[in-house]
UniProtKB/TrEMBL annotation:
Subcellular location: Membrane
Main localization of the protein described in the UniProt heading: membrane
Keywords, in A-Z order: Membrane, Transferase, Transmembrane, Transmembrane helix
InterPro entries given in the database record: Bact_transf (IPR003362), EPS_sugar_tfrase (IPR017475)
Ranges annotated as spanning the membrane: 23-42, 54-77, 83-101, 213-234
Keyword Membrane: yes
Membrane topology: Multi-pass membrane protein
Species, as recorded: Wohlfahrtiimonas larvae
Name this polypeptide is given: Sugar transferase
Domain Bacterial sugar transferase: 208-390
MF-aspect GO terms: transferase activity
Family membership: Belongs to the bacterial sugar transferase family.
Amino acid sequence: MAVLPSLIIWPEIIINFPHLSPVQWHTTAANVLAYWVAFLLYKKLQKFPGARTLIYLLPSVTICWAIALGVILLLRLDYSRPALLSAFMLANMVLVIGNQLSHKYHQLKLAIVPFGDYQEVIALDSADHRILSAPAFNGIRYDAVVADLRSNMPDEWQAFLANCALANIPVYHSRLMVEQLTGRVKINHLSENIFGALYTTSFYGIMKRIAEVIFVLVLLPVWLPLMLIFGAIVKIESRGPMFFIQERVGLGDKDFKVYKLRSMCQDSEKKGAQFATQGDARVTKVGKFIRKTRIDEIPQFINILKGDMSLIGPRPEQRVFVEQFKKEIPFYSYRHVVRPGISGWAQVTQGYAANADETRVKLEYDLYYIKHFSFWLDVLIVLKTIRTMLTGFGAR
């Protein structure tokens, strides 16, 4: 009942804006901040594949209002709870309605230029595409034009693309459009990828490293007891150590020791390194639960403090598999230009890889992450990771 009156007083607040009380000022400022961050987050996240579903968008709105509330509480400011709550509910309602209308009435419509390598775009079901028979739209509205910009096309088609750019109609290279719609970077030819964007260091990379160390230290009272409790349960259930320690390949193609809670029986790799498979008999009963919920990854916070790993990044592999994949998969080593992560784009999109073919696809996801290395992509991966922890997606 308190929410409805708060919605009614908003027009009065707008009319009397110069004469707002401190409570109204603080509440209005917090809501404006939350709306702005939510809008910015929405615009940034929707650029990535699979990010337009409400399962990711609604939590992002909650995060924005949580940040606004956190600032208010940190500064010990007076505020109106009903007004803050009503603005939060209104933002969610607008998001749900807008998202449903967008899915119902608008699908990305692409005009395909029929020269060079454009077949991959046609094979995708992510957009409504039509192949142009002549360099003209013939009165049809398109969201963008897709063309193989490296192909040899007639002069009139080149002029058509130039005119599209002048008219502010986006023109995308076919390879980049496939990448945008699938979240994967193809690895057939080195020249087909913008490897200048494969960061070895950046300002964001430095800030990310600092933020992750602070995050792990702040949450130390939470994850350390949780790790010890489940570690004790692991030891009680089956014979063997609490931790599973294994050599993995990390940043710069250098080996490091990764720490995990043991989820398999002792001597699970006495026959040599092997992938975990669906329903793997080596996994213990407790191991199934901690693998599904990713609790077995908690000890890797220690790897983060040591500088071996990051919260977000490509999953580290064993040296024996790395050497094998280097021979079988082009550009496999490029995944080692960033720190490996506890969670990653490939992990939350594809799940675990159990053979060379799946690893090739996984590498395409990893290179997409490296190429689009940013705060916003990390935010989306965090949201997807939460879904993964709740659903057990990709666990083996």
